């Protein structure tokens, strides 16, 4: 009887331990993809200064997976309600066979530059791979972004023109950017973004 009671207690303890154990992170293997994107901001309700727009863009792109070192060049910006921007960034993509093949295809200019610098360009066999995870990012709840109602048009235009080029899935889109009545609250957009796991 005592042995049976001991086994029951041990079984309950095992179940409780298993229930309390945290789930293993759902990581995927990724590689960095470099892109150069053009973005034209046209504001109806919000006119940023050039430096403010640049900071907003950098913060938002970093939050959805862009690597340190992204560059944002204001090619046409006069502190008015519109600007033309050149964005160069690296962001994670899943290391599928197609993606790896795409990021290791090099132009003749890149091959010549690497030869001059005596550098080896990455190949499908040796390109650096790293763990990444799909993480939900809320434009309204992410405290580091500090977005306001006036940022609604910017987020909406990024969602339409830039986000489709990144590893991003829209989770909830309730953006209400009104030309007639102004923007209603913080930008209501949540996305799942592929983000590199810190070392």
Automatic annotation (TrEMBL):
Domain of life, per lineage: Bacteria
Keywords attached to this entry: Signal
Signal peptide: 1-23
Name of this protein: Uncharacterized protein
Organism whose genome encodes this protein: Steroidobacter flavus
Taxonomy of the source species: Bacteria, Pseudomonadati, Pseudomonadota, Gammaproteobacteria, Steroidobacterales
